[in-house]
Each structure stands twice: as structure tokens, then as C-alpha cells.
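no rush on this but wanted to send it before i forget. what follows is a protein written twice so to speak, once as letters and once as C-alpha cells for the fold. mainly i need to know what kind of three dimensional shape the backbone takes. thanks a lot i owe you, the record is right below.
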Amino acid sequence: MTENWLGLEGRVVAVTGGASGIGAVIVGGLREAGARVAVLDINVETGEDAATGIFNATTDVTNAQSVRAAVASVIDHFGTLDGLVNNAGINLPRLLVDFQGKHPEYELDERSFDAMFNINVKGVFNCAQAAARHFESVGGGVIINITSEAGIEGSDGQSAYSATKGAVNSFTRSWGKELGKKNIRVVGVAPGINEPTGLTTPAYNEALAYTRNTTVEGLNTDYSKVIPLGRPGKLNELANTVVYLLSDRASYITGTTYAVTGGKSRG
């Protein structure tokens, strides 16, 4: 195999939520593969980073007008768009009912419910729609939806988050059928337990621990007992999967979701 086996040199890929966490690692993987990358993120200022060549576009994925403007700015800057990675997301651990009554802030309410669905579901819809309009005009493209193992298996204390990711898995299956006619591939990537990112905050861990009736220390698990490969996933392993699926080497893959979980499942 040659270094350009994936054939992504010069391809333009937009990554939502690409300024931090998993998204930033995906951006790095795409750059290593020779792709030209746009970061669509609410925490960046629009313009090119002279040091990296990355084009940043300020984007609120929950706002369709903001998304359309960001996609237009990417196309104006690079001349085209070949791929989209729907990565932007939020996870707020919440119980359906806080039976203990000790932390009502960790009980699911409309505010937390709407926050997750607006970003994780509406945001994916907004970005996919804007990208697909362009892809149809140029004869094809690829949409990668970052979902979660929780959307397949469910997750204790994360029912609403799991539901958002289940919805994205359904988007992936349906859009694969709908957009395949236009040579647009749609593939889901569902991470399991991964090494932590800067987005794994103490506040998140405290909420998750409460919803699972344990302590923050108790969240640490002997992964050899629950993951066949015996360890959490590495972020670059997830990024490698995304980069491959964006390439023409995956040209017959669409309408399905890949669980990148080290074999972890209910069984």
C-alpha cells in the first residue's frame, strides 16, 4: 500500500464540533490523510488558520440559517465540499425520575431534554440537509454521523442521550436509502468507552455517578470484564474509522452504523 491509499488528498471535509474532543482528533486524522478540513463549531471565529490551513466557520448547528451560511462559506473558501462529519453533540446524564430526591438537577427536565435533542438530532438534520443539497449538485458526497453505543444498547442514567443517538442511527439508515440515488453515502460511527477527552469534566462525572448510584471513583471499571479487547478505545482508532469511511475505499458502504466498541455489547 502507498501512503495515499485512501485517496483523500485535496478532498474537502467539514467536521462539526471539530474544535475539541473527538472532533479535533478526527480533524487531525483527516489532515494526516491529506484532506482539506473545515471546522464548523460555535467556539471558533470564521477564517483560515494560516498555520494549519484549516478553515474555521462559526456555526450554531441548532440554527438552520447559521448552518447554511457556514456551509456556503466553506464552499466559497475551498470551491467545493466532499464530505461532512456530524460530530457536534452534548451528553447530560439524567434520571427519568430521581427517586432518592437528593439531586433534582439530575432529573430529566424539558431544558436538558431540549438541549440534547436540539444539538444531537436537530443539529445533525440541519447540517446533513445543507451538505446534501451541495452534494447533489456536484454528483455525490459522504455524510458520517457520529452516534454512540448508547444509541444501540441504551445506557443507565442517559436515556435521553441514548434516544438522540438512536434517532441519528435511524437517520443514517433512512438517508442511506434516500440519498443513495444521488450517489451520497451516509454512514454512522458509534463509539463505545473511549479514553477521556477534555470534555469529560468533573461536573459530567458527578452527574453520571449519581445517576448510576455510585461515586465518581466507582465509575472506574475493570474493562477486561466488560470489553472483549480489555481496554477503552483510543480516539485515533475512532478517527481512523471515520477517515476510512470518508474515502472511496469504502465506496459500497452506506445506510449502516459501525460500532467501534472493542466488542462491548449486552452479552
In short: The mean pLDDT is 94.
